[in-house]
Task: structure prediction
Amino acid sequence: MSMVKTVGVHKTFHGSNGRGPLDVLKGISLTVEQKEVVCIIGPSGAGKSTYLRTLNRLETIDEGQIYIEDKLLFDCHNGVNKIKMHADERSKTLLEVGMVFQRFNLFPHKTALENVMLAPIHVRKFPYEEALEKSMQILERVGLGDKIDVFPAQLSGGQQQRVAIARALAMEPRIMLFDEPTSALDPELVGEVLAVMKQLAAAGMTMLVVSHEMGFAREVADKVVFMYEGIILETGTPDVMFSNPANERTRQFLQSVL
Result:
């Protein structure tokens, strides 16, 4: 079963201050299979983060189709979705998609444990005791079992990002989206977040990762996608993409970052 599939996805931002429209996504077609780890790489402004945000409705699309777990949720033409589906059914499917952002976005006045428990209780409607037990287990899993009562300001950036990962996992998603999860971290803290992501991949989590961490892409990805100016220029295994990319623009990009 494909977990994520997009067909011909287009997205245009209409600029203010007299700036013209900006075509950010120009027909993105991509399939992510169950338990697959797909890394999207490419220069800034390629549309990588925007693409990720279309998958859980943080951004609407103008054209194209989006399937989650083989269910067609969006079939858009001129910005109008032709799929008639009850909002609750669509929301329920989108709950299968967890997301981790560049910025941690934790509630500063709540402890690590409280940050992780909030959504399972209020969105998934888990009983308090079940949410408490599950959240403690997940914080233990990401190496923060000793930090459950600590507030975000007392945690390092890497620890805050691990809380953010735990918060996404507490919703029991079947797909995890990572939008440059290490880009806001000091270099010495990157490894601890990548280690948690490697654990998730090894446990069979379906993952779609936008990242500049080429070592992670090379080691963990099943498939690497190179995006440039709103299109997918090249897709391949890490071996092929890093040792013998077919596209000259891919080659230039990798030479500049490796």
